[in-house]
Amino acid sequence: MEPATLRSFKQQEHINLEEITGYKGIYNRVIKRILDLIVAVIFLVLLIPVYIVISLFIIADTGFPILYKGERGGYKGKTFKIYKFRTMVKNADKIGGGTTALNDSRITKFGHFLRKTKLDEITQLINIIKGEMSFVGPRPELLKYTSQYSGIEKYILEVRPGITDYSSIEFINLDEIVGGENADEFYEKYVLEKKNQLRIKYAATVSFKTDLYLFTTTVLRVTKKAINYIRRK
Fold it and tell me: Which of 18, 42, 116, 165 could form a Cys-Cys staple with 229, CB 3.0–4.6 A?
């Protein structure tokens, strides 16, 4: 049976093709990229000590490699490799599916901490500097899903994928939503369509105001989640 928390997601706003215009603006095409590059370079320099500490903990916990590099569908349909601090055992992709289940056995001890605090995502500053991602934009999806985009879903690829967006906030506890069994099946049946609708919403409304709202909301939600996690420990 479809969970009550997801049944409400079926009440979706209808988006007309005429309303999907945000991605065409100069902010998305020019200004956003300049801001991303400047801020990402500053953050990268400031976070170098954090990168070193996290890298040492990963090596001590499970050895190399330090980074996870997974292929994703990106801007204008181009494939790129997303960078994350590795939070799972080596060759985790070959052991299980693409969706992380609740209490997934592939997650390492230190990986749990990185995921709950979202520190595994900070390496995506490299993707931003390379022009593959943005701070705010549709969360990059696996190629097996982006290759099936059709109709207005194709507008998702007209903006750079980001570290956060509407769907990241909506599904900040995705592992708890998909549960511990058949995570890929649950994700495809109950979550993917809603996430794509929220991604389309971003492409339609992308602006500095939208990005500022999503960025600040994400920081507040992630901070609260991290504090709660640390308190429980």
Answer: 116
Domain membership flag for residue 28: yes
User: Residue 55 belongs to what domain range?
Assistant: 15-232
Do you find a cis peptide bond into 49, omega within 30 degrees of 0?
Answer: no
3 domain-assigned: no
* Residue 76 pLDDT greater than 90, yes or no: yes
| Separation between Cα atoms, residue 141 and residue 102, nearest integer Å | 19
Domain count within the chain = 1
pTM, entire model: 0.88
Are 106 and 88 in contact, with CB atoms under 8 Å apart?
yes
- Please give the Cα distance from 221 to 194 (Å, whole number): 20
